[in-house]
Every structure is written in structure tokens, then in C-alpha cells.
Please model this.
Amino acid sequence: MPTITTTTTGLELYYETHGNPEHETMLLVMGLGAQMTLWPEEFVAAMVDRGFHTVLFDNRDIGLSQKMGDARAPGIAWQVLRKRFGWPAPVPYTLKDMADDAAGLLGALEIEKAHVVGASMGGMIAQLMAIHHRHKMHSLTSIMSTTGNPKLPQAEKEAMEVLVAPLPSMEEEDLVAHGMRIRETIGSPGFPGDPEKRRAVVLKNVRRNVYPAGLPRQLAAIIDDGDRRKRLEGVTTPTLVLHGEGDPLVKVEAGRETAKHIPGAKLVTIPGWGHDLPLDLTDTLADEIAAHAKAAKAKSAQNAVLETS
Model:
């Protein structure tokens, strides 16, 4: 099992690498309660085909990475209420800790800098890497993510309810049905895909690992981090923001605001795209990310020449 101890937080993270290690690295950071296998194999292959050494990993408290034991997350409603009044609730770990994990994974792999791509909560983690670990990043791509501004349009009720609903049981059949409900509820209305392929992916993830205790702790970290708008205004990492116009969980307004608050960020929105990574959009997304990464690296090289001339 390929696990490694991060150089920052000392946690054991499960990771995989794909492609030529001599190429520039692209680090993929997945979202809330999601294993790294939610990055479609086709998408990972597309990034490799576009010339990137691709690294993906399970965040702490999920998949095959280190779990945080019996640590308890505060209740969502209570935590949100305290946050509103400026009284943060104690949390098992923070979103910055998770950004430190990702930076420490790069350190442990002896990768000096990477293009960092984060989806949903992974986008928040990638944003925090750009805030706290900018020296480790060539570029940032924030996918279907947000600034954390509480005044943004909220998730559709059904989308949030299905995401945080307790598991009906630990029986495989029930777990697969639960996973399918999530995908059908938050997925792309314009790119429904093949339901049999979707079920196969859900089954694969269920058989890989199920760890329900991690999701509320990760959610607590998101709530605790709060509004990043002011912090994002200091980001200097070249940034691409990708967002679906049909996202029922993190509304497209959140993507627009993310781009607004990161200086020089490019925003791309796609009609019919929800809160997933549909195979029909693989090449579209891969092309956007690859072009952004290559442009960022070219600009960095140009700036280096100017500084030495």
C-alpha cells in the first residue's frame, strides 16, 4: 500500500502517481467525504496524456489515509450558530491542517512545486495552499468550490440533505443505493452519463473503503474555516476557476465570487454541469486545466528571466 508520512503534519496519507515523474506535477485534491478514486480514471489519464505527472491522494479521515480515531465533531447547527456570533466551536482539525497535509505530501515526495487542482472541499484546500504554501505551487485550479461567504446562495435542500444523511446500514447493497442517490441528486443535469458505469464506480468505492466518521469532521473543518474572501485577495498564484451552471450543491455564484476575489483569476462556467466530474466533460476540463497550467509555467519562466536580466 503506497502510504507516506507528510513532512508537515506527520500523518500517513495514501497516494498514487501516474505518468512520467520527469514531467511537471499536477496534484489532485478531492472533496468532502470523497476518496481520491472520485477523480475518474479517464480524467487522470487525460492529464497524463497532456504531459503531467499526476499525483492523487486520500485526504485525512477518508479512504485509505490515516483516520482521526474517536475525535468528535460539533453538531452542524450548533457550530454554525456559534460561528455566526464569532464563537468558533472546537474542531478535531482545520481546513488549513488539510492544506498542510497536501503541501507535506509534496514535500515527502520531494516535489518542489506542483500545479494544484482541487474539487469542492478540495478547491478550498487548494485555495488555502495558495494562501499558506504559495512557494509549493505553479498554479491553482479551483473546481466547483467557494469562498465560504455565508451570504452566497445556499445549496438546494435536497442536495445538502442527501450528502449529510446517515448511512442506512453498512450492508453493501444499502451503501451502493445511498451512493447512487447522492450522485443522482448532485450530478450534472446536462451530462447524466451511463447509470451502469456510475453504479460500477459507486460499487468500487464502497468496496475500497467506507468510513462515515470522517465526513462530519471534514464538514466541521469547512464550517470552521469560514469566509476566505479577504485571504483570497492576497493570492498571487495564477488561478483558474471552473464551475457548473447547474450545480445544486455549490451554486455557480460561488465560483463567480471565487474568481472575483482572487486577483487575475480566470473563470469558466459550463451550462448543464452539476457537482460531479462527468465523463462527457473530461476533455473540456482537461484542456482548460492543462492550458492554464502551461500558461502559468510559461509566465513564471518569463518573470524569472526578467528578474535576472
Notes: Residues 3-155+212-308 form a domain with the Rossmann fold fold (CATH 3.40.50.1820). The CA atoms of residues 162 and 181 lie 7 Å apart.
